[in-house]
Amino acid sequence: MFLKGSSPAKVLVVSTSPDAVNHNATIRTSLRHGFEDVLGAAAVRESPLELAEEAVAEFRPSLVVALGSVAIDAAPLRGLPRSVRRAGARLAFWLHDDPYEFDYGVKAEILADHVFTNDRWALPHYRHPSVSHLPLAACRRTHDRPVRPMAERSLDLFFCGAAFPNRVALLERAQGSLAGCRVEVRGAGWPASLPFAENARMPPAAMADRASEARLTLAVGRDLDIANRRFRLPASTPGPRVFEAALAGAPQLCFAAGLEILDYFEEGREILLFDDVPEIAEAIARSHREPAAFAAMAERARARALDAHTYAHRARTILAVMAA
Hints:
Keywords: Transferase. By secondary structure, the protein is of the alpha/beta class.
């Protein structure tokens, strides 16, 4: 039984949408690894949503963490809380697509004992009596890499992510100034106008490998709402790639869409910020002039991620909140 003031004996991590349409199912596994680091492997399991009710009945967890997006209308979510109640457990939803899908959050509010939102600015807009802000993170087993010497890095600039319009526009504007640089962009939906971009999704471990081989990894958030009409919330919290690249030992150049990122990494010591296209080429040139400084920045960012931004840290937070 999960009791207030005590730690749960067992945790089940499930997805909130079917794996057939869930492009972020690997985060479920990363969170399971985080709970395993805290509770031990025997106390933790994971399940796709399609098998979640059976997993609850078989495993009899004390806490179920439902992780993901609730924007899929056909996702069979209502059976999950019923199975959780039958097991005498508690149910937390961790929504990782706020604020872009904030209008769907009410589905989680109806079902959950507690709601965690990935975005700090979305937090005060929820009406649930028990809600917390919890950023995504990095997984030690998947993303951790030693920091390579800058002379061994085969790329000048790397970016991995979907081709959202703001990202395409940014790289199209930067394209001329990047001529002669070794640039690689991977993800879905990139246009032929960007010759260094390839429409190929990268597994998380491959992304970490490639980021560790770049002098700079670009961090540019998303600017495409799916369901954010109620309050039109701007994104506040950086996405998981910032934490993942830091753990992979990548010096990062982060687009300054807001200042919350400074709560997680120190500008100039652990990351670099930029807000205009010419700064990308300038940062690449600086990485060639000052390789030791960039390697040291990557070391500090990796240390910060290991100290505060892994899924084990997030698992401890979830356990503390749910036991309060």
